[in-house]
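Quick illustration for those who missed Monday's session on complexes.
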Amino acid sequence: MIDLDKHWESKNKMTEQKYIALIDCDSFFVSCERKINPRLCGKPVCVVSGDRGCVVARSIEAKEMGIPMGHPLFMAKKEFPDAIYINSNLYLYSQISEQVMNLLRQFSPMVEVYSIDEAFVDLTGLAKHYKKNYYNLALSIREIVAQEIGIPVSVGVSRTKTLAKLASDKSKTTVNHVYIAGRCGITRLLKSSEIGEVWGIGRNLEPKLRGHGIYTAYDYAEKNDTWLKSRFGKLGLELKYELLGNQIHKISDVIKPPKSIMDTKSFPEFSTDINYLKNELMIHIHSACRKLRKANCKCKTIGVIIKTKDFKTFCEKENLEHATNFEFEISELAIPILEKMFNRNEIYRSVGILLENFKPCDNEQRSFFDNSERREKNEKLAKSLDKLEAKFGRNIIKTGFIGKVDYKQDFISKN
Ligand SMILES: [Mg+2]
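Prediction with magnesium ion bound:
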């Protein structure tokens, strides 16, 4: 049996005690929709991924009705007709997410954005600074985010990122949505957390661990180092130390560029019209380029994705001559790819763009034969586009539309 208190006594003499918070927005997509439409508050609300998509976020009321996550929309509507279904608006969510993250940066200089609705925040030493204990500090973070941005959050605080994740899960079940596991609380937290709830334990690993008699996070932390290392390697051992409260994974405020960007959406109606597909592709290229520029990256590889009515998906990739984040340069390559892929006998449900093979904008190597004047012009134009959109809203400018679409004749009804 491991004596965590003793473990801590010896540990504390050597290292500073960390206070790591995981701040998680509650039912984030639903909360964003409620922020812009308060009449949705208190009602069963589901956010869905498009007209033919599935449930991607649920309010507490929708969860209580028993609507499962990932449930296809057409089934959910039939089985739960009283719930409200809203199409997701990822642009809105990412803007509100940015507001939340910027506010968190006012509390602590060390904020790691973990996902659109979660951030690790290093609060170490800040209780003194704000003249509050850590519980009250966590409470005031929650209150200020709610007051200033109108988004409810839960706060879990403990010694490491892995423990903060567990604490954050527990915080959802408390009245104030705050859970602190300091030195004395770690054992209780570990004992009350099933092994499957631990950050990094996937669905495949969970039954294996149970097979070894590891049912809780505490059972895992009790295993000896040699046994863990021989079975689960260095990462397995590091997990034990994170669970014991020894920080292995540091908080990093460096924004990592994404590995790829995909932008696609189902058409409102099926289509057989190449011009319609081209127009839709241009919209996705524009939106993907905006994301790429925001990440301060350029891409060297693009892929055009098309999906047919019966869900056959095709993706054709090609390399660009030089890395770019400008829509005209990408569409020059993408449109001919789409023309090649297009089959006039098929009925299509969606088109999309995939950007890959990223290079940071700062240290790019220019080829001797680059048409640098044209590129500079393009870059200036792209920057102006982004500024205008930031000011007046998304898609106020449509770039490079290809041809006229006869909406009435060329759509194939989904019915
Ligand atoms: Mg969340």
